[in-house]
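Hi V.,

You were right to ask for the full record rather than a summary. Here it is.
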Amino acid sequence: MVGMGLGNRKWVLIIVLIIIGVYISLLIYTHIGRTVLRFSGPGYVVTYVRYSELPWPLNVLTFDQPNTYPLINIVIKGAPKPYLNVNARFFIYATGPSVGGFVNIGHYLSNSTSFVISVSNYTAYAIKLDNYLRMTPDIAGPSIVLFISTITNSSNGPSVVTGFVTVPIIPELARGSVVNVAINYTEILKTSLPINATDNAKLAFNDPSTQPPNTIWAGCVVISSGPYENKEECWYWELNTVLLTQSNTPFPITAQIIQSPEVNYITQSNINLAITLQQNTYTEAGFALTLAIPTSTGINVETPGIGYMLQLPSNSASYTLLAYGCVFANPSLTTSASECTYANKNVTVTAPSISGAGAYGVAVIGYLEIANYTEYECIGPLGDPCIGTVEAVQWAIMTWFAAYNNTSVNEFEAEPLNPATMMSYVQLLLNNEAFNTITFPSGTTLIYVGNIDTQVDATPLFAFAGDMGAILEAMGVSLPLELQQFLNYLIVGVSFNTQTISNIQNTVFIQMSYPSNINVCTSPIAYEFNYQVYVSNLSNYYPAPTVYVDFNAGPCS
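Predicted structure:
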């Protein structure tokens, strides 16, 4: 009997060990996730992590999963020390694009450098925007923008410092994923506003739920001396005005400029361009979201991250964003047809013939939004300072653009642009001295812009860029007065982001031909943007290139 008891205990121990082993295996299985998206912005990293799910009741036994979307987990390091008596470390104001303009998503407070925000009210907007752009919500989506403010002590006293971060929302990829945002506050794009408080001022963040509607509080100071003694001074960011929403907006990406004297010497112009991504692991492409922020020395153009992202499908070794070609023929010199087509696709449209001066080229067609975000200051009675003086103290103009998807070829929507409109755009840029001039050897009739190779942490290069203010003006769009001073700064562009060694094939091929019975010479020049876009994580300015070519064709002397 004693032996039997020992045997039973042995089997019980084995069974218990098996149960423990199975439980540990299940625990590990459900708590080791796989990354399905990784985006590195300037000073921050966004990851989507998927965890395996078990059926009930095993899912209960293995504990709860981490917070999944629409909850977003944020961790901030490198933030400045908070000002004395701060009772909330960070204030976050979230906004995002929608069909019809930017929308407020929410405002949040945190006492910690690690916190969670909910963006549940934005998912429907993101899906609707994807559908409007004819993109699939499993590989593409807009980014929300976080204004992350903190109050710290600077050399000039206390300051409100706001950092800008974009978080891509690809709806079907985010659903069921744990969305983590790791921020290095010292490296993200920031703007600072000094505070006129004394050192012993009592600082308090107010709970937005107790404030009047539509008021988003960033922080408050009780003024202890001076003309506003015993008053309260507060600051808040707000979506002030959606300045413009524009459908079917052309984004000129390349063109051959033909002056009036050249018309009789150019038989046709051939333009071909391609943007193709090749990956080992993660590759993203998208349209850069641009902020134009006034400074004491002028206006800075900043790119806080990709505003609309396309994630290369994981089962695809390459992905073509655009492969498009046009023939612009001169009907007085050739019988060739003027047409544009997607490469290797049976999708062809008529293109303008060369019949006069103009810029003959290609535009990507998309949807544009421009909004003004303003930081306000209130000084007034304790507990209700905005009854007193309210003034705009700082602002930013945000430009957001995304291309439509041509569903018949599953590439960006592209088309030839009216040569007069394109020429008006180029002329505006010339008048604004927005171009660097590049000369080529005499006799050149072919100009080719080659590949871009990127590696881990490489510069998020702009494949194409454009001045959206000048585009709108060339199109004859009536611009709000608030935009007039920004015409030279509203930059849009296609940019790339890689996490492993990948190849980005970004090629532009422009060739002109001339009559065989005429001795034609060329002295080509190209116009390339001289705009410099600041990339915060590399702490430097980089060019936003787009090239327009003029072959200056004419009879040989």
